[in-house]
Amino acid sequence: MTKPMNPLLKPENRKEFIQQAMKAMSDRQEEVIAQADKIIGDVVRFEENIHQKFVSYIAHH
User: Fold this and answer.
1) Which of 4, 28, 50, 56 has its Cα between 20 and 30 A from that of 22?
2) What is the DSSP letter of 10?
3) If we measure between CA atoms, which residue out of 20, 22, 18 comes closest to residue 9?
């Protein structure tokens, strides 16, 4: 008695499975990059704002 092979291991299913997995990873990577860009942008704006306040404070004291 043999155990049935997992459908993902069958040669005819591997290509589609790999393509789906690659697309899922690519989609997730794009989401993470978009989140990082937003966070980094916020940090840059925050640092510029603090720098301007610091310079303004120093100039007036």
Assistant:
1) 4
2) S
3) 18
**Residues 6+ positions from 13 with CB-CB distance below 8 Å:** 7
- Cβ-proximal residues to 17 (8 Å cutoff; 6+ apart), any chain: 8
Which stretch of DSSP H or E encloses residue 24? helix 11-60
What's the pLDDT at 25? 96
Query: Could you tell me which of 19, 52, 4, 43 has the C-alpha nearest to residue 60?
Result: 52
DSSP category for residue 3: P
Gap between the Cα atoms of 21 and 34, Å rounded: 20
Say whether pLDDT at 18 is over 80.
yes
For 13, the token pair is 């299913």
